[in-house]
Amino acid sequence: MRGNGGQRSTGPARAVDRQSPMPLWAQVKDDVERRLRRGEFNESFPGEMVLVQEYAVSRHTVREALRRLRESGLVDAARGRTPKVANTEITQPQGTLYSLFASVEASGRRQHSIVRTLDARADATVATRLGVEESTPLIYLERIRLIDEEPLAMDRVWLPARLAAPLLEADLTQTSLYEALDRRCNLRLTGGREEVRAVVPTSAERVLLGIPDNTAALSIDRTGELRGQPIEWRRTIVRGDRFSLVTDFTRPDQVSVTVSDRRHSMTS
């Protein structure tokens, strides 16, 4: 069943349980979200009136469901405009390093993480970057990322505890952070900014990542946003001898990432 704009739905109404204690808008939201995740709306998203007919509920109920989906970053919806699936460029997960890990698994090479720290703490410097009070509790995650048992990167991430506290119960040794945020916290980042620069790794970073004495590293600083509000600050230290960024000037919006080892290299 597919619709857009004012297109009418011709199929039977989708089930909502009017005897359930769960509000109708929440039932509609959950079902639309399930359909989104199945890829049902990849080509187009139904308008308000199509959803009203599909679920046999009021327009107010549909608008409340869409409002909640908009808040979670899944849908772009505003009064007077046809709803559409939100741009999820960062949350698949995207960004250079994280597309790389997906490519590693797709190529048959094994990736996993060693979780060194996962706790709640305050950090005044990071809180300032996130635009919150200096004493605000933050979830802090520190991981070593490995490919075929060889260390590639050290990842440090901070997120507001009020949004990300469920991550404290997550197993992040095999799962991407953004996948866990989506599944456990119902959060999908909608934008952000990333800065890459060359750095001299600390002695501890050299030991943990196996970086030779004469080799530099790359530092990737990322601020992840939800609807323009920063909710993630991340610093990733990557081995300079195993990682590179390549831009094709014919497609300046595309960044190619290469990870190499002594036997072969792989580009994604």
TrEMBL record:
GO BP term, pick one: negative regulation of DNA-templated transcription
Domain HTH gntR-type per the UniProt entry, residue ranges: 22-88
UniProt region (Disordered), positions on chain: 1-23
Protein origin, superkingdom: Bacteria
Keywords for this protein: DNA-binding, Transcription, Transcription regulation
Molecular function via GO: DNA binding; DNA-binding transcription factor activity
InterPro entries: Bact_HTH_transcr_reg, Chorismate_lyase_/UTRA_dom_sf, Tscrpt_reg_HTH_GntR, UTRA, WH-like_DNA-bd_sf, WH_DNA-bd_sf
Gene3D superfamilies: Chorismate lyase-like (3.40.1410.10), Winged helix-like DNA-binding domain superfamily/Winged helix DNA-binding domain (1.10.10.10)
Signal peptide interval: none
PANTHER family: MANNOSYL-D-GLYCERATE TRANSPORT/METABOLISM SYSTEM REPRESSOR MNGR-RELATED, MANNOSYL-D-GLYCERATE TRANSPORT_METABOLISM SYSTEM REPRESSOR MNGR-RELATED
Protein name per Swiss-Prot or TrEMBL: GntR family transcriptional regulator
Native organism: Nocardioides albertanoniae
